[in-house]
Amino acid sequence: MEAHKKWDLISISSIPLTMTLANSMLIPVLPAMQKALGITSFQASLIITAYAAVAILFIPIAGYLSDKFSRKAVILPGLILVSLAGVGAGLAALLLDKAYMYILIARLIQGLGSAGCFPVVLPLVGDLFKKDKDVSSGLGLVETANTFGKVVSPILGSALAIWAWYIPFFAIPIFSLISFVLVLFLVKSPAKDKEQAPQTSLKKFMKAIVALLRMKGKWLYGIFAIGGISMFIIFGSLFYLSETLEIRGVKPIVKGLVLAIPLACLCIVSFLSGKWIGQNKQIMKWTSFIGLALSTAVLLTLGLMKWEQTLWIVLLLSVASAGIGAALPSMDALITEGIDKKQRGTVTSLYSSMRFIGVAVGPPISALLMRGSMSTLFLVVAATGLVATLITAFAIRPGHRLN
Length: 403
Hints:
Elements lengths: L5 H19 L5 H8 L3 H28 L2 H25 L4 H16 L2 H11 L3 H32 L3 H20 L15 H46 L4 H26 L3 H24 L5 H28 L3 H29 L4 H21 L9
C-alpha cells in the first residue's frame, strides 16, 4: 500500500466507524427507550429504521453528486448534518414530555446526513489507489472499521445509558465532528483528469448508468441483494439478542459485552478476509460463498433447536456473523474494482442503499416475527441467507468476466 496515503485511509475509515456508532449504539438502549417513552418494541425499532430508511432514498443522489463534484464536498456537509441531528434528538429526549415523534424526525435528518457519508467512502478508496490489491486492502480496512464500530457500539451505548438513556444521542455529534476534522485536513481528494471529467448533464449521466446496469446487471444486482441480506441478518439478529437479554434481566454493561461478541467475530473475520482476497476475484467469490453458506447453516440450526440457552444463542450467532464478515469485503471489492471511476460513486451508492434497506427492515421484521417464536424468526432469516448463498454461486461468475 502507498505509505503516504495511510493517513488518508485512516481518516476515511473514521466515517463508517462514526456512522455505525450513530445507529448500532442505540440498539442496546432500545428497551430503556421503550420504557421511558411509553412505546412498543415495534415503535422502538423504528428509531433504528428511520435512520436507515431516509438514507436509502438519498444515497443515490449523494453518489451522483460525489461523481459530479468531489467526494469530500458530499461527505463533510453530511457529517455536520449528522452532528446537528444528534443534538436535536438528545434535546428532544431531555426537554420534551412526548419526545418520540421529535426523536424520529431528528433520526430522519440524521439519516439524510449519513447518506452523504459512508456510501461515498467506497468510491473514494477506489479513487485513492491505482493498484487493485491496494484497493482491496483499503476496502478491507474500511469494512473492518465499520464492523469494529458495531463491536464497540453496544458496549459504549450500554455504558452511556447508565447515566441516562438519551446520552448516546449526545455522543453521536462528538464522533461526527472528530471524523469531520480528520477528513477535512488529512484526506486529499485525487485530482480529476480529463478522462474523469464529471458529466455535465444529469440526463446523459443517467443514460450511462442505465446502460451500465443493462450490461453488468446480473452480477451487480446479485451484489446489491447480498449486501442487503447481510445487513438484514446482522441487524435482525442483534435486535433479537438485545430484546432477549433485556427479558432475561441481564445488566446493561454485561448486555453490551454480550452483544459485542458476535460483532467482534464479524470484525475479525472481515479484516482477515480483506487481507486474504487480494485482487483474485475467484477467491472473492468462493470466500463469500463459504461464509454465507456457513452463516445460513448456523441460522437454520438456531431455527430448529429446541433449547434457548443464552450461551448457545450467542455462540451460534457469533459463527453466523463470522460468515457474513467473510463475504462483505469481497462484495465491496468486486463492486468497486469492477466499475469505472466516472460511475463508481453512483453504482456503489446503489449498493449502499441496498445495505441500508437491510438495516432498516431488520429490527421491525424481527420485532414482528418474535411475536411468534424464536424458531419462526431464525427460519425466516436462514431462508434469506440461503438466497444470498445461491446468488453468490450463480450470479457472481468472475471466470466469465463480471458483465
